[in-house]
Amino acid sequence: MRGVRRAIGAAEAEAAAFAAARRLGSALELGRAGRVGLYAGVRGELSTRPLFDAILAAGKPALFPVMDAGSQLLSFQRVRAWEELRGGDRSVPEPVRGVAELLGPGDLIVVPGLAFDRHGRRLGSGGGWFDRTFQPGVDGGPVLVGYCFEAQMVGEVPHGTGDRAMALVVTEAATHRW
Q1: C-alpha dihedral sign at 93, 84, 77, 48
Q2: Cα separation of 64 and 159, whole Å?
Q3: What is the mean pLDDT of residues 8-21?
Q4: Residue 33, SS3 per DSSP
Q5: CATH number, domain 2-177
Q6: Handedness of CA 50, 53, 57, 62 (dihedral sign)
Q7: Cβ distance 151 to 113 under 8 Å?
Q8: Mean pLDDT of all residues in the chain?
Q9: Which of 15, 37, 73, 111 is most exposed, with minimal Cβ within 10 Å?
Q10: Are 108 and 52 in contact (CB under 8 A)?
């Protein structure tokens, strides 16, 4: 799947990012969300920059994850300008250390992945950060939304009991719901 992402040209990737942002921007789940957790794409992930700009324009708070090596969990911090993001652990852009906010009911988290399947399951990049932070069976958590290129949608991904399914997956071509 990394090769699939690498094969997407820069112009196509940029167009896809704008299309996916428009698609998620019109989703009811985003309209209902109080706060939105995002990621800053790396290594060919679908960019969230257009989505970030749309979220701020809609007057919603945008938060980005910070990797806590001690707990191996993500915490989220508010970002008001893209330029506030700096290279963090594993060269993943994250906010300069500040005040963490707990995301919960009424919030939405946009989640990256290598692949998503037709059941809302996600194949991550292997670090387990999102899986540990947002475990299945936890009541009252935020809505998780997969965000990827349509080419990353597959029939089935490997999954286990520690994997939490997405409520929906948004691509440049479709909004997949279960």
Answers
A1: negative
A2: 25
A3: 97
A4: coil
A5: 3.40.50.10420
A6: positive
A7: no
A8: 92
A9: 15
A10: no
Instruction: Kindly give, in sequence order, each residue whose CB lies less than 8 Å from that of residue 137, ignoring residues fewer than 6 positions away.
Output: none
Give the chain's length.
178
What is the H or E stretch that residue 5 is in?
Answer: helix 2-6
Q: Which two tokens stand for residue 105?
A: 């009911």
Beta bridge partners of 74: 67
Tell me the DSSP string of 121-132: -EE--SS-HHHH
Q: How confident is the model at residue 90 (pLDDT cuts 50, 70, 90)?
A: low
- Burial (CB < 10 A; 0-12, 13-18, 19+), residue 78, is middle
Strand stretches in the chain, DSSP E: 36-37, 62-68, 73-78, 85-87, 93-95, 100-101, 108-111, 115-117, 122-123, 143-147, 153-154, 168-170, 175-177
- The residues spanned by each domain of the chain are 2-177
How far apart (Å, rounded) are the C-alpha atoms in residues 140 and 155? 29
For the whole model, what pTM was predicted? 0.93
127-168 pLDDT, tens per residue? 888 888 988 766 678 999 999 999 999 999 998 887 889 999
